[in-house]
Amino acid sequence: MVSRLRACISFAGLGLLALAACAMPRPTQVPMRTVDHPLGAGARADTAVILLPGHGDKPEQFTRQGFVAALREAGVAADVIVADAHSGYYFKGIAAERLWADVVEPAKKAGYARIWLVGISMGGFGALWTASMHPEAITGIVLFAPFAGRPRVLRPIAEVGVKAWQPRPEKGTWDYELWRWLKTAGEPGSSVPPIWLAYGDDDGGTSVDLLRQITPPEHVFTRPGDHDWDVWAPLWRTMLPVIPWAGAPASSP
Description:
alpha/beta, seven-stranded mixed beta sheet, 7 strands, 38% helix, disordered C terminus
């Protein structure tokens, strides 16, 4: 599973997450399907936690892996919305568009005071992409071993470091513009929401290395292991009591 997923993500770097080379993407639907887990009957919480799956995973995987149960056990007062943001949306280049129109914007209009995006692998990219387009709507972002751009874009940034990297004035590709925005994290007036980063010790890579540079050390969580739920589920339980779900004060790296 790990080697196959890495191969898929590597291929994705050649195009906008063109994961069809690994498996034919599922058909997209509008609006995007969601699976809701409200806090309690008859009452809406003030916080919405939106979960975004990785490549090949369906929304129900979060339930099977105990993500929703762990959130409840930790006493987090939030409604959970799991988006069926599968690779078909990324293949078409409409993942962020549909996540906003079908999931985040309706949550905002429903009156949630805080909206968190939690993304695993490919879903981590979806969280970053969506937040970069609508940062004012997002309270915080939780990323598990995320994909954050193609090697040809990330490599020049990694060579000098995020702080030293100077983006050119003209507009670049989607991942170039993502990093133009992420580079401002922690700076006065930045629109980048607080980021929390988790991954296995054997599951590094350029995306993770660069995100570490803009993430406060106390927001970074690791454990032994690779690109797998056996790593992410325990990390989720560790992070849950620490993340300020009721509000995310600005932090500097």
